[in-house]
Amino acid sequence: MWFRNLTVFRFSEKVSASLKNLDESLDQARLRPCGPIELSTRGFVSPLGRNEEKLVYRVGEFALITVGSEDKLLPSTVVNEALAVKIEAIIEKEGRRIGARERKRLKEEVFTDLLPRAFIRPSRLHAYLDSKNGWFVVDSASRKQAEDAVTQVREALGSFPAIPASPEEAPRVLMTDWLISGKLPPGLTLGDECELRDPAESGAIVRCRRQDLETDEVREHIKTGKQVFQLGLTFEDRISFVLGEDVVLRKLRFLDQVLDELGEDSRESAAAELDARFALMTLELERLLARLQEWFGLPRPIDPA
Fold first, then answer.
1. Is residue 165, in this structure, part of any structural domain at all?
2. Which residues form a coiled coil (predicted)?
3. In the list 85, 99, 143, 249, which could disulfide-bond 241, CB 3.0-4.6 Å?
């Protein structure tokens, strides 16, 4: 139970109060198996694993949830091959050509016939809600996936006005200044990767990996007008990540100082280990998110009076 990427949303204190009924609401939106002629289904599954019933796992103010999905895989090559066989049989039997409209209808028939036999690909997406601080944190670097998770919660609750974290200070400008000046906020140090871009349309892109970012070679790119779009960072020697100008954290990794704090007793059972890891992870991320809010200005929505 370690998140690998973070896309974050914010919600108000009023929304936090409505989360008391989260368990009951998600129970009405459990993932159900794909029907014979359905392409996909979405719903909630237990974060505790297969065959578990509990849909919300809580530690203090933090609530872990998991969005599950089932998607049927029906490659176009399979459909087209079956369609070709069907068309050949009609031509052989009736001796006539197949028009565009009939071909389209036959393709739909083939698709419908094959769909019940298609392979099903299951997937799981973890997220947690921090009721105290108003964060909805999704373990994904994909904005679409993260938005889908918000949508699932919104549909289950009836209302969930969480909004993407919107920085008041431009991350691109701040990260560029950090890199060129070498002066980072306390507790933050440079990692070994970055992505520099010329902000002009179709401008040059430079990607550095496993490289000392404090060299003149890297700074020279910035002097020619490039800006930092992604920057590798380490927070208090406890968490490393790549921060994007979209305020998405990628390649998140908890370092030895954090991992060493897991007690031996957490390994006695799967439940104890999940409890220890989730508690430790959320407390570490609570501190990191508070600093991101401080650096970039990620205001929590205020409820109207």
1. no
2. none
3. 249
